[in-house]
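Researcher: Here's a chain I'd like modeled. Treat it as a single chain, no partners, no ligands.
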Amino acid sequence: MMEIEKVFLKGKFIKRYKRFFVEFLFHQNIYTAHCPNTGSMETCLKEGADILFSSSSNPKRKLLYTFEMIDSGKSWILVNTLMVNKIIEHFFIHKHHLLKDFINRYQYLKREPKIENHKLDFLLYNQLNKNSIDEINQKFFDIENQKPLLIEVKNVTYYNERLDCLQFPDAKTQRGYEHLQLLIQYLKKGYDCMIIFVLSREEGSYFMPAYHIDPQFSKILKEFYKNGGKILPLRLSFRVENLNENQHKVLIDLKKVETLILDFY
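Model: Modeled as a single isolated chain. Structure tokens:
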């Protein structure tokens, strides 16, 4: 289990506007927080819902507060997408049992590897090499006979109540589509590639792509899978504990998702 290294305060959600701003109520006063989520956040936001936010001591920040989580009534939802990669990296480093089979054979982890004109989330490999990924790849195939592993991480917050499932994306994602194109290209070069879908709420009995929102992304995800790409949906489990009347801490663990559906349409 991981404890997020932040102190959280609890407020009430009022509204989101201009994508990156959230108004909330705290101690009978209205404040504005930064919203670090570029998606639609459809099915997450409800006026009056409890939220958790953090406060920064950085004097250069325009907004003191960051919107972190919201309570759906059934589950906390992690809406700060910047936290998701940090959580997955923590569980990589500590060799969580749900990730061990994928990471045990690697020595090194690189954050945000630059692949052509893109940044992916992680590269796992065995030969320490400060040069380009192609040179790392050459060392793997010539010396280690071991494929490097490219990993993309996606934060999943969209809940389809009718189907009782969680889906990605919640808005059309050209960047996500281009990253899948790139991963398919590198699968054909001999790399291992994996997408981790992090289900950041506890509703929903399974995961599937959101065909009705972004058919282009959903179709290329199936193509990625058919070309040998690995798809790993993992659910976050939350425990929010009171430190005092105003402050809270959040503990997180990973849970296995039993069902992945790709062939819905």
